Amino acid sequence: MKPSCKTKEIVTVVKVDTPDITIVKLPRGVWFVDGKEFDVQEWAGVEVLVKNVSEIKARQECTKISHYENSQGKVLTVDEWDAENKRLSSKGYPDDYSPYNTLFIELEDEFEYRKFRKEWNAKYTTQVTWLDVELQWSFVKIETGNPFITSLFCTTEFTKDDSLLYIYNRLDAINFIISECFESLNFTFKEDASPASSSKEKVWGRNSLRSTGNVVAFGTYLFDRSFPCHDSVGVIQRGTLDQCQALYEKDKRMYENHIKSRYAMMFDDKEISKVSAGKILNKLERISSSLSNVQAKTGSYSILQNQTKELRELIKDIKGFLADEL
Fold this sequence. Notes:
Layout: E1 9-16, E2 21-26, E3 29-33, E4 36-40, E5 46-49, E6 57-69, E7 75-76, H1 78-89, E8 93-95, E9 98-103, H2 107-119, E10 121-140, E11 149-151, E12 166-169, H3 170-184, E13 188-189, E14 203-205, E15 216-217, E16 220-221, E17 236-239, H4 241-267, E18 271-272, E19 275-276, H5 277-291, H6 301-325
Parallel strand pairs: 1-10, 13-14
Antiparallel strand pairs: 1-2, 2-5, 3-4, 3-6, 6-7, 6-10, 8-9, 11-12, 12-17, 14-15, 15-16, 18-19
Helix pairs in contact: 3-4, 4-5, 4-6, 5-6
């Protein structure tokens, strides 16, 4: 099989918004970067700052067959050898189990073919060329606009495979969301708040642990295990910037809706058709809790599941309504 040479090289270019810099990930080899040769010895490659990416070239030592010689010093050009090899191999047929092997019916044809292949040896020459580079661009946003979402690119906590990802500090974000929401409702924070002390007053608190399962307000521990970061699990999330931002928005809606709906149940009298929405929500949640302990008979299980699902969707709608009204 004849050696082949590349026509171009591919490298990854990372554009960082702040500061305005360009980083190129160079594989192992010799490169022409910003007017100088740059020899990369590391097998995994290196990342370098580059001023002008359009001038990057890749050095290639391309080995090609220059001609063929036999033991008597006679020479065949590449075209002459190809023509004779094609003529002799045409008398046989390809081997189904080895695509680079040729089989023959007549022994004389096989002998002539194999003698030719053995007699003439390829001679090689090495040619140095500088290849153009195809740039594969990636963009990193250092200033995400969200203090709880950070690019991994400028930290030491990543491998080369996830350097373009971001981390979302979920626990810190949720604690901030909770604090801001209570502040908007004019609640007072008390470190020693208990279910009893918060049952009738606008106070909230938590113990020294920062997980959301320790938050006290409205006469109870406010967040059960259905809420993220209840017990400090999953406090750091990784993903693209869009994924992290979407998760932050989801957490914000979830916690704010829950707090504001509980606030409406205790301190507000929003009316829906002249009936207190808070009282309706309170009753619906008690019914939902009771249904979760009901064991349906065979044949009625799907009906119970569907009704429970509808009830939970109704509770969710009322919570959203109450949160929007606040």
